[in-house]
Inverse folding.
């Protein structure tokens, strides 16, 4: 008898995507497929002589649960959780939920087909372990099974950070990865030749996931993964500090960055929307940092910065 699954699709804001994804995993989801939707544009601020354009970035989260006696309770819990997020002031719009039934074969095929090997930059290939890959001697493969933590490589912000990392690591560096999620950027740094990487995340549930991903990629001895908020778990100075999180989280930590960066070191920020760049530039200048390089993909920006 074929097993039946219930596919739950939630469309929400980028800001809320990580916490909603983690909640789905806590409910027992085996994984969460994260799709960044094409942004909508809307005219607003009609009082202004020139209407400005605002991008409403939406993320589609898709997960599957067995169609059993618990499915109704799980759906009710998801709806309640979204309502609670809204009540505490987190932007979750549009918070749409779609539900449909699928067979076991369709679930498996759909899940795997969504994650082909992905080439990023000049050297990286990010792929789940079920794909068969024969890389060249110059290519760097990061094995990463999707769904258990943010940072699968399929989102533009992660791709921008990987592209910038690829350009600045030559071997022997000391690297800090703030907000590591799945550990993908820490793994990338280690595989490119960094001597030591410390990766931190405020969410303790992702730590064992990042540790397992480091083990799968054979770089666990190079990477220390710890619970911590921003720089609280770090000491000393680093050749490279990489931060792939939301702008509203990046801005408050910019004043601390010069205290942890070597004189000739580099900062890498990603997770920045195009319209947020003026805030990043202003905060960087005020704290003695200068932008070295800017890269873009869709509506996202990645930057590398150095000390003035």
């Amino acid at each position: 008898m074929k097993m039946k699954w219930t596919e739950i699709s939630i469309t929400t804001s980028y800001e809320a995507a990580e916490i909603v994804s983690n909640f789905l995993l806590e409910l027992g989801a085996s994984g969460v497929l994260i799709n960044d939707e094409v942004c909508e544009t809307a005219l607003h601020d009609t009082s202004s002589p020139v209407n400005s354009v605002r991008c409403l970035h939406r993320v589609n989260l898709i997960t599957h649960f067995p169609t059993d006696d618990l499915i109704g309770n799980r759906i009710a819990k998801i709806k309640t959780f979204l309502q609670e997020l809204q009540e505490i002031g987190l932007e979750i719009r549009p918070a749409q939920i779609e539900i449909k039934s699928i067979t076991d074969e369709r679930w498996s095929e759909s899940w795997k087909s969504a994650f082909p090997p992905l080439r990023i930059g000049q050297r990286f290939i990010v792929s789940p372990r079920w794909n068969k890959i024969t890389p060249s001697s110059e290519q760097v493969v990061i094995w990463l099974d999707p769904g258990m933590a943010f940072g699968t490589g399929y989102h533009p912000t992660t791709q921008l950070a990987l592209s910038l990392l690829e350009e600045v690591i030559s071997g022997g560096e000391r690297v800090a990865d703030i907000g590591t999620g799945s550990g993908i950027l820490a793994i990338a740094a280690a595989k490119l030749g960094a001597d030591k990487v410390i990766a931190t995340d405020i969410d303790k549930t992702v730590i064992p996931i990042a540790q397992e991903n480091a083990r799968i990629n054979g770089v666990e001895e190079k990477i220390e993964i710890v619970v911590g908020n921003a720089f609280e778990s770090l000491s000393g100075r680093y050749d490279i500090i990489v931060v792939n999180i939301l702008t509203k989280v990046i801005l408050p930590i910019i004043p601390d960055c010069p205290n942890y960066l070597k004189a000739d070191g580099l900062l890498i920020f990603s997770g920045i929307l195009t319209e947020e760049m003026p805030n990043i530039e202003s905060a960087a200048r005020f704290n003695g940092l200068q932008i070295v390089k800017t890269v873009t993909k869709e509506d996202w920006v990645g930057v590398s910065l150095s000390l003035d």
